[in-house]
Design a protein that fits this description.
Elements (H helix, E strand, L loop, with lengths): L1 H24 L11 H7 L5 H14 L5 H7 L5 H15 L5 H15 L3 H14 L5 H11 L3 H14 L4 H17 L1
Helix pairs in contact: 2-3, 3-5, 4-5, 6-7, 7-8, 8-9, 9-10
Length: 186
Amino acid sequence: MLIRTKLDLDARGLIVLLATVLTAAAVPAFPAEPASRAEALQALVSPDAATRAEAVVWIANRGTIADAELLHQRLRDESGPVRSYAEQGLWLLWSRSGDPRIDAVMAQGGEEMQAGRYAEAIKIFTSVIKAKPQFGALSGMGLVYTKLEQYDEALKWFRKALDVNPNMVGVEMNIELLKQKQQKTI
C-alpha cells in the first residue's frame, strides 16, 4: 500500500510538473498591447486579427480625432471583432472633442439618453452641435429620436452625421433600419 501511495504521489507530482511546464511554454491567448504609437500603427496591418484588434483598442484609447481615419480603415477588416472594435473606437474618439468642457457636456447627454430622459438629451446634444458642428453629437441626436420613435427626425440627424463623416457604418445601418421600419408602417 505504501508503494502504491508513493507512486500515486509521484504521478500527481509529474502531472503538476508537466502542467506547469506546458503553461509556462504556452503562447499567450492575446497578444501584448502595443507599447507605443509606432507599434500600434504597425500592428494595425498585422496578418493576425488579435494583434489588429489590440492596435485598434490602443488607438481608440489614446488617439485623437485625427486618428479616426486609421479606425475607418479597420471598419472593413476581414475580422468581425476588429470591425466591431473599430466602430466602438470611433465612437470613443468622437466623444473626445479635444475640449474638456464639450466632452463633459457630451458625456452628460449620453447619460441622459441612457436614463431615458430624451428631452434633456436633445437639449444637451443640441448645445454640443452648436459648439462643435463636426462632432459625433449629430448621430447621438439620431439615436435619441429613434428611441422616441420619431423616425423622420432621426433620419434627418443620421444623414447630417453622414454628411460630416460618410464612413460611419453604424449610422448607415441605422438609416437602413429606419427606412425598413417606415416601409412597414406604410
